[in-house]
Amino acid sequence: MDPELVQGFREDVQMKARHLDEEAIEKAVRYHVEVAGRVGLAYVAQCVQLAGMFAEQAGASPSPSPSRHPGDLHVGTEWIRLLSGRINAEREAIWSTPEPPWAPSDWEEAVLWLRIEEDRGREALTALESSEEWRALKEGVERGVSALGQMAGEKVTLQRPRHWIRLLQRFGEEWRAVFVEAFGSRPLRQLSIAAREIQEAAGFIDHEVSAWILFGIPPEFRPTSVELRHVSIRVPGWAEVFVDGTPQWTPTHGTIPGKRVEVTLRSPYLTPDDYSALREEVRALWWSGADEEPEESRARFTPTDRAFDRAWRDVGGPLRPRGKELWEDVRERWLALSASDPSFPEPPQSVASVRRYFYRVKEKKGSLLDHAPKIQKKEVDDA
Length: 383
Prior knowledge:
Layout: H1 3-16, H2 22-36, H3 44-58, H4 70-95, H5 107-129, H6 132-152, E1 164-171, E2 174-181, H7 186-202, H8 206-215, E3 224-243, E4 246-265, H9 272-286, H10 294-299, H11 303-314, H12 324-340, H13 351-364
Antiparallel strand pairs: 1-2, 3-4
Helix pairs in contact: 1-2, 1-3, 1-13, 2-3, 4-7, 7-8, 11-12, 11-13, 12-13
């Protein structure tokens, strides 16, 4: 596997999961690189989730301990009782029996079945999408969605839902984790939907729900959960561009980043200790990683990051569509800057690596003028 691609993937995951323990992040990255063989922008979010699972099980990230109030114990027991029918129905639909298909010790057999179903579903979906009937139907739907957007006066998009199945189990001192993409497999899609719906309603973690269906291991009720969400809003701004070597400020659009912490309570029986733990977790998530101090946020920019930013702006990057031609111009400008100044970092060898720097640096931006403008849909990145 390309070391440069792996390093870029590792840095992207570290940026997204900066509120988690470094050991948990590295363990998740190693799993994606050495076991799953899945790296790239499409798998960053998945790797961050895995790092969170490792951190949670290792006690590396602050998380309030579930209350042991008798009321909570009753709520958890009732959820198990009420949901048992749904769990049995899912098993019956997939394996024609309400009993767990595997014992907890049959981890490898269950994982093998998941992998086989994943591959089978992907092959079936690939074959379906290559058929003329599928293409004609898709084109018709896309035309309808476009017409609907024009009539409504706003952007309307059509996206295929992505379904995932997560498993996490302990064997002695070792934790084993599995991520499976449902794709075109009906059984995997059923498992994924059930795990997500039960997590939303009852608060059981999705990978524990999957283990309940597959191995018969009841999940643990958690009366509270805390989640950090990053948001942004598009606003007018200015960008510095170079015209014949002369810097000029041009109107453009940028984004202001924001965040919020969502606290979910699933029980009224919280103790003062529970509320205290929640308050500490909210603070830890809010001021996590590089968000602790503005100075630290600025320090996250490496010399190479700044070198890319300089070359990108010199060739008018903020106002140009992203594509191969832009990245080639950025690399040429970067090469010229490094040739004229020995202290200026050299550019990477490939145009694809220059392109990855754009997304890496864009993630680190912290102010309006530093943000790149939003590129219109028609300006497709073809690098």
